[in-house]
Design brief:
8 strands, alpha+beta, Jelly Rolls, five-stranded antiparallel sheet
Length: 257
């Protein structure tokens, strides 16, 4: 049984923690295949748009429903619940790949994943799910322990001296405070390193996308109530006073408020 107390302590003190064996080998294989397809679809749909990165699917919920279904995971949701609360919602869900021999991408600069800085308060939690072994050779992310307590970016010398490589096996998940300073290392292998990034926030915060409007209706079939909540359907404000007074059970799913 997973010892969540240790992970909570590590995340609160270091700013990050690694949870082993969150998904199995079969799921990893399926996700990698579907991620390749999603990246190709994303490029076809949005190529030519300003800021479009061909190596990034900025939202996976609009692609294969499998990406949504794998979020209904006891370990993943329990980590979010304990660090935020059970009303927490999805903020963003993206691909995370690092190609070989690519130098100086945005993720390889020292950065945080949110500009919001509220000392002693966690606004969100990010999970990076490894679909390959993350190693020092293929660019496992470097994190500066305790740096979620720093508002200003640490200097290069400080980061280089004290940062830790978060090497881990495929199927392991790294959970981190989006205020911890980090950067990807270089992928010095000849293979792409695959992963997924899931960012959850407290329910009163805005989602990056309007998932209840964007997610295809067919992708909602068979989802649990806890996953419906995580996707943000129960955090949507009513669009009218009439809707406010309407029984939820009589409303279409995309009108839940």
């Amino acid at each position: 049984m997973e010892n969540f107390d240790i992970h909570i302590y590590e995340l609160q003190t270091l700013g990050f923690t690694i949870v082993r064996n969150v998904i199995d080998a079969k799921t990893i294989t399926t996700l990698k295949s579907k991620l390749d397809t999603a990246l190709a679809e994303d490029e076809k749909m949005f190529s030519g748009k300003e800021g479009k990165n061909p190596d990034l699917a900025v939202d996976l919920t609009i692609h294969d429903p499998y990406f949504i279904k794998i979020l209904d995971n006891d370990i993943i949701l329990e980590m979010y619940y304990r660090l935020l609360d059970k009303s927490c919602i999805l903020y963003s869900y993206t691909s995370t790949i690092l190609k070989p021999k690519v130098m100086k991408t945005a993720v390889q600069s020292i950065h945080v994943d949110t500009f919001k800085f509220i000392p002693g308060y966690i606004t969100g939690i990010v999970m990076t799910l490894a679909l390959d072994d993350f190693t020092a050779e293929n660019g496992a992310t470097l994190y500066l322990p305790g740096s979620h307590n720093l508002e200003a970016q640490p200097g290069e010398e400080t980061f280089s001296k004290y940062s830790l490589s978060t090497a881990r096996a495929a199927g392991d998940a790294l959970f981190f405070n989006p205020r911890v300073w980090h950067r990807a290392a270089n992928n010095n292998t000849d293979k792409i390193r695959y992963g997924l990034t899931v960012y959850a926030t407290r329910s009163f915060m805005k989602q990056r996308f309007d998932f209840p409007e964007m997610i295809p209706e067919e992708s909602l079939n068979g989802l649990s109530e806890r996953l419906i909540n995580f996707l943000g359907y129960n955090s949507v404000p009513p669009k009218s006073v009439d809707q406010y007074y309407s029984p939820k059970k009589k409303l279409p799913l995309k009108q839940y408020g």
